[in-house]
Specification:
heterodimer, A: alpha+beta, Rossmann fold, OB fold (Dihydrolipoamide Acetyltransferase, E2P), 2 domains, 6-stranded mixed β-sheet, 5-stranded antiparallel β-sheet, 9 helices, 18 strands, 27% helix, B: mainly alpha, MetI-like fold, globular
């Protein structure tokens, strides 16, 4: 069990600022994610924690001990690589045993530890298989086992699921989550997939352009984003200006320099009934004629249906559960749009 | 200051010291010695610096020799391009009986060290050649009218030895074109383009980089060629021969001036080659579908192409057969007859039973081992530095590692002579010329680029995250190198080392300037046996060399195939 703190960490490559000075406290046993689009500096940050890059400024403290000057070999921080980085000339057993051999463990101890970790990652039968003969998901789990078996103080994941297909990704995600819970190992997980981060993490740091935008629990990030980047990256929110809120939705509590962020599933839509003050029997929306839009596109993706609606030249995204009966709404249909009055999610207007 | 670099200082420092010591002492210093010698004022003028040697060679033979060298190189490029491209195209596009065997045989010229190839051609199509005499007798013409010699002899040998650049470059380009971009040819045909249009607009432009690369390589190799002009050239002047002649006549300054001029051309072409290869590359690495798309041809074209190809390949075998036949010829028995008539196995039994005959073999094997050991050690260290580490002067070091590839062996030999014919810091204050060590040193310098390149490209394709993974698992430098890096590099090191070894076994160009009687290698002994008219003895050495080369090539392709299958 270990806690890790990052103080004033920054990184520049020449004149390019990859990571702006930042502070983070990662608690013991926590599953912490770094989430952001590619090129936002999250992998650089992770590599600095591992010791594979040196920070330009700042220090790392592992259990209050400064580890900034320590080489990767002496940090006892494990890393699961995006491309797995399994040694291609070794078997599954040899790969996993490598770190234990470095620690000069006895042969018998190595054997039992490898067997037990293989069981944990559900690969018991694959001990003597050559790496190229494993599937992508199996390779991923060997990489996980190899990092886990030396019992590191902190375990780092660099987009470990990005090379897997969708079904395998969900399955491996479950394995990672369960192992992390069982071992209680402090983990930092880098990903660009917000669904993955939300599902796995205790807390998430959202990064953009080398700057941390917000650090919070998944629920807080989703429902109370601090700025428009977080709102759009995490929840794909729609943004409405003060003018539009007041003219279309009768909401007057928005300042000129603010915008209302509304999640796609919060947008209410109903069929346009042809004349003012008629009520759509399905959505129960009454029509005041103010917010009338036109459906541009309908995308069915299984559990939800997404409507892209043109509202006064602005594209609005609205999602519905597929089970809701809305067969009548198709591209070209005219709809009325409404926002529940209890939504007060305001973000600063971007210049 | 990046402290991940700082941290590795001790290990990097040792590597850097070793590699820089070698590069400075045995690559850079010989070139500087050449330069210095070429500006040496003759006599007692009291000047420190003079252009006398340059003026001298310009007034004597430099222009003539340059024109000849460039002309022979252009002819060699043309001939090699036609033969190599044709063969590559036919083997890629047509199926015919026994193709797998022919596709192996087409590489037979690779198995002949340059000197052996020249000798084989002399006894095949030269004035006393078996083919020349045979055909002459058949039609009742004088053999001297039929003999291929002088210029055409040199071009023939060059095409025989260098067509392989075109063949291999174009073959690999065609393979990539049809395997990873198979759809490009299909796309062109499906858009309604004719066969001719597809070849002209799609295939040829995509092949241009390989074509230019092979042309530059062939041009450089022809400019540097020594054996063919030496044995076939007669009194015609070529730059490499002029260096040799000036050196033998004791005119070091003129030899150096010739060498400097030739090096400028060669290094210029080397830089041009590197620049071109970095500039243009259509070939992306992607997974091949295994399906080949080819351009369809009419059956007449097909038949004609296949017949020509099979004849060419069979002709490729004749020099090898010539050498093998000659190796059984009894000493002094073949003079004016069309074909040799008296055969014996004595030439071979003598190789290993007569200590005097065995000595050159022992010399060559020892020197090849020493050279290979040096090259492996320096080449591996240098490739790790250049690919994995950051330091000031890295580009320069990389260039120095590649320079001997562009510099003719004759020039390297003269440079080494001028550097080590007196006590030097880099020879521990002893004179290396006349000793055993100067020969393996020259072989090592000449062959360093081969191993450096194969190891560096092996290292480049090895994923650096493997080493990082080992680091995060607590593994320190040496263990990571031994357990992770080295096993991954082993196949490129071994195949590079085998190539260095066989090149060193048959090395002739620098040996002829550096040997002494007790250290004479096989190639020199072949030449002296020829001068004694002991054709059988010379051919037996040649046959031994060919067997060793083929064995090494066989092992090397085994290894690379085994790695590919992994």
């Amino acid at each position: 069990m270990a806690d890790l703190s990052l103080r004033d960490i920054s990184k520049s490559f020449g004149r390019v600022k990859a990571v702006a000075p930042l502070n983070l406290e990662i608690h013991s046993g926590e599953f912490f994610s770094l989430l952001g689009p590619s090129g936002c500096g999250k992998t650089t940050l992770l590599r600095m924690v591992a010791g594979l890059e040196q920070p330009t400024t700042g220090n790392f403290f592992l259990n209050q001990k400064d580890i900034t000057a320590l080489p990767p070999q002496k940090r006892n921080i494990g890393l699961v690589f995006q491309n797995y980085a399994l040694f291609p000339h070794m078997t599954v057993f040899q790969n996993i045993a490598y770190g234990l051999e470095v620690l000069n463990c006895a042969k018998r101890e190595i054997y039992t530890k490898v067997e037990s970790v293989l069981e944990k990652v559900r690969l018991s039968g694959k001990r003597d298989v050559a790496i190229p003969n494993l599937s992508g998901g199996e390779q991923q789990r060997v990489a996980l086992a190899r990092a886990l078996v030396v019992e590191p103080q902190v375990l780092l994941f660099d987009e470990p699921l990005s090379n897997l297909d969708h079904a395998l990704r969900l399955e491996t995600r479950g394995v990672i989550k369960q192992l992390q819970k069982e071992t209680g190992i402090t983990s930092i997980y880098v990903t660009h997939d917000q669904g993955e981060a939300l599902a796995l993490s205790d807390r998430i740091a959202v990064m953009s352009n080398g700057v941390i935008q917000q650090v919070d629990t998944p629920q807080e990030l989703y429902f109370s984003p601090k700025n428009s980047f977080v709102a759009s990256f995490i929840g794909r929110a729609n943004f409405f200006s003060a003018e539009l809120c007041s003219s279309c939705f009768g909401i007057n509590s928005i300042d000129e320099n603010e915008m209302l962020a509304v999640l796609p599933e919060e947008i209410l839509i109903g069929k346009w009934m042809g004349s003012v003050s008629k009520v759509d029997p399905i959505s129960k929306l009454s029509n005041d004629g103010k917010a009338k839009g036109k459906i541009m596109d309908v995308q069915f993706s299984g559990a939800v249906v997404e409507y892209v609606i043109d509202l006064l030249q602005q594209r609005v995204r609205a999602t519905r559960s597929s089970t809701a009966h809305e067969a009548a709404l198709s591209a070209g249909a005219e709809v009325m749009i409404s926002i529940p009055q209890n939504i007060h999610r305001k973000v600063l207007r971007e210049q | 200051m990046n402290s991940s670099v700082k941290r590795l200082t001790s290990a990097t420092g040792v590597l850097l010291f070793v590699v820089v010591f070698f590069a400075a002492g045995y690559i850079l210093l010989p070139l500087l010695s050449l330069l210095k010698e070429s500006f040496q004022p003759g006599g007692t003028s009291g000047l420190l610096f003079s252009l006398r040697a340059y003026i001298d060679i310009f007034h004597s033979t430099f222009i003539e020799a340059s024109v000849n060298s460039v002309a022979i190189s252009l002819l060699s490029v043309l001939g090699s391009a036609i033969v190599g491209t044709f063969l590559a195209y036919v083997f890629h596009n047509f199926e015919f009986p026994l193709k797998p065997i022919f596709s192996k045989l087409v590489l037979v010229p690779l198995a002949l060290p340059p000197l052996v190839g020249v000798i084989a051609f002399m006894f095949l199509i030269g004035e006393s050649g078996m083919l020349t005499r045979g055909i002459a007798a058949l039609f009742g013409i004088a053999p001297s009218n039929l003999a291929v010699q002088g210029w055409w002899g040199i071009v023939a040998v060059h095409v025989y030895s260098f067509y392989v650049y075109f063949y291999l470059f174009i073959t690999s380009a065609l393979n990539q074109l049809s395997e990873s971009h198979g759809s490009i040819i299909d796309a062109s045909l499906s858009l309604g383009a004719s066969r001719a249009v597809t070849i002209r607009r799609i295939i040829l432009p995509m092949l241009t980089p390989s074509f230019v690369g092979a042309s530059l390589m062939t041009f450089m190799a022809s400019m540097a060629s020594f054996s063919a002009p030496f044995l076939f050239g007669g009194t015609t002047r070529f730059l490499t021969l002029e260096i040799y002649t000036a050196k033998l006549n004791g005119n070091d300054a003129n030899a150096a001036a010739f060498a400097v001029m030739l090096s400028i051309v060669s290094v210029g072409f080397l830089l041009l080659l590197r620049w071109y290869q970095n500039r243009k590359n259509y070939m992306f690495a992607s997974k091949g579908s295994g399906k080949r798309s080819t351009v369809p041809h009419s059956s007449a074209v097909r038949l004609f192409s296949v017949v020509v190809t099979v004849s060419v390949v069979i002709f490729f075998l004749l020099p090898v057969i010539t050498i093998v036949i000659l190796s059984f010829v009894k000493e002094g028995s073949w003079t004016y007859q069309i074909f040799p008539e008296k055969f014996t196995v004595q030439n071979f039994t003598k190789l290993f039973s007569d200590p005097h005959v065995f000595e050159p073999i022992a010399n060559s094997v020892q020197m090849a081992f020493v050279a290979t050991a040096i090259v492996v050690f320096i080449g591996v260290c240098a490739s790790i530095l250049v690919v994995r580490k950051k330091f000031i002067g890295k580009r320069l070091l990389e260039l120095l590692m590649n320079v001997p590839f562009g510099i003719p062996g004759t020039v390297i030999a003269v440079g080494l002579i001028l550097s080590f014919n007196h006590p030097s810091f880099f020879s521990a204050r002893s004179i290396l010329i006349g000793t055993f060590w100067i020969l393996p040193l020259a072989y090592a310098v000449r062959n360093l680029p081969i191993l450096f390149r194969s190891t560096a490209s092996g290292l480049e394709s090895a994923d650096p995250s493997l080493e990082e993974a080992a680091m995060t698992l607590g593994s320190h430098g040496w263990r990571t190198f031994r357990r992770i890096t080295l096993p991954l590099l082993l196949s490129s090191i071994v195949s590079g080392a085998l190539l260095v070894f066989i090149n060193s076994l048959g090395e002739f160009v620098s040996s002829i300037l550096l040997y002494s009687y007790n250290t004479r290698p096989i190639s020199i002994e072949i030449l002296s046996q020829l001068r004694l008219y002991n054709v059988g003895g010379a051919a037996a050495y040649c046959t031994l060399l060919m067997i060793l080369v083929m064995t090494a090539v066989g092992i090397s392709s085994r290894i690379s195939r085994a790695t590919l299958l992994d």
